[in-house]
Amino acid sequence: MSIDDSGTNHCDLRMTDGRAISPSLSEGDGCENWVSKGDEMRVQYDPESIASPTN
Q1: CB contact at 8 A, 11 and 3
Q2: What are the distances in angstroms from CA 24 to CA 5, 44?
Q3: Longest C-alpha distance within the chain, in Å?
Q4: Please, are residues 22 and 39 in contact by the beta-carbon 8 Å criterion?
Q5: Radius of gyration of the chain (CA)
Q6: Whose CA, among 8, 23, 31, 55, lies 20 to 30 Å from 45?
Q7: pTM of the complete model
């Protein structure tokens, strides 16, 4: 995971094997101030957009 610290938090996610996960997370979606580069996060990954978004 990499973090853009230029204002609103923005996290780019990668799978454990290094492949990128799209889309990235914004501050309101889990990329909070306590997140640091290299942290592990549990996310629901839906590459085929089958599941609807949930809160």
Answers
A1: yes
A2: 14, 12
A3: 32
A4: no
A5: 11
A6: 8
A7: 0.56
Query: Are residues 51 and 31 in contact, defined by beta-carbon separation less than 8 angstroms?
Result: no
Determine contact, residues 2/37, Cβ cutoff 8 Å: yes
In sequence order, what DSSP letters do the residues of 16-54 get, joined into one string? TTS-EEEEEEEGGGT--TT--TT--------TT--SPP-
CB contact burial 41-51 (16+ within 10 A = b; e otherwise):
eeeeeeeeeee
Q: Which two tokens stand for residue 46?
A: 């839906």
- What is the rounded distance in angstroms from the CA atom of residue 8 to the CA atom of residue 23? 16
pLDDT digit string, tens, across residues 12-54: 888 888 888 887 888 777 788 888 888 888 887 777 777 666 5
